[in-house]
Amino acid sequence: MSCCCEREMDGKSSPISVSSLATILSFLLLSLQLKWGVRAQMTPPRFDGLVYGETAEFNPENILIEAFFDPVCPDTRDAWPSLKQALHYYGSRLSLIVHPFPLPYHDNAFVTSWALHIVNGLNSSATYPLWESFF
């Protein structure tokens, strides 16, 4: 029985099994995927969160909440007062960093997220009043 995947070794024919070819091909594809996957998971080159309150530094003894909010999302609007109430209740024991996370199905979400980053860079004390005005 002859196979289309034969190779010559010392004048003798030796078939390469289909499972061996599949294993080699799988290994090559996996190694390429891992190479691309690692590049896709790089840490952002800059900090992208908006720190809530007057503290610009994170205290490791505090509880840190990182929230990923869409600035024009109705669910974010509904969750914001409760989160703000918890921040005021626990005071300095709690820290909040909000990451603007624009969802593609909310109109103007991307533009408002950029506006928050711009305002935060110019005057960080105006960031959250602007955030609340979007609601």
Walk me through what this model shows.
46% of the residues lie in helices and 18% in strands. The protein has helices spanning 18-40, 74-90, 109-122, 127-134; strands spanning 6-9, 12-15, 50-51, 63-69, 94-100. By secondary structure, the protein is an alpha+beta fold. The mean pLDDT is 75. The chain has four helices and five strands. It has a domain at 50-134. Helix 3 packs antiparallel against helix 4 (127-134). It has a three-stranded mixed sheet with strand order 3-5-4. The protein has a two-stranded antiparallel sheet with strand order 1-2.
Q: What integer value in Å does the Rg equal?
A: 27 Å
Q: Return the string of H and E elements.
A: EEHEEHEHH
Secondary-structure-based class equals: alpha+beta
Spans where pLDDT lies below 50 across 5 or more residues: none
Molecular shape: elongated
Biggest sheet features: 3 strands, mixed
The end-to-end distance, rounded to whole angstroms, is 74 Å
Number of strands: 5
The fraction of residues assigned to DSSP E strands is 15-25%
H/I helix tally: 4
| Rounded average pLDDT | 75
Helix content: 40-55%
Strand order of the largest sheet: 3-5-4
Question: Layout of helices and strands, plus pairs?
Answer:
Blueprint: E1 6-9, E2 12-15, H1 18-40, E3 50-51, E4 63-69, H2 74-90, E5 94-100, H3 109-122, H4 127-134
Parallel strand pairs: 4-5
Antiparallel strand pairs: 1-2, 3-5
How do you describe this structure in short?
The protein contains four helices and five strands; from the N terminus they run ββαββαβαα. With about 140 residues, it is α+β, with helices and mostly antiparallel strands.
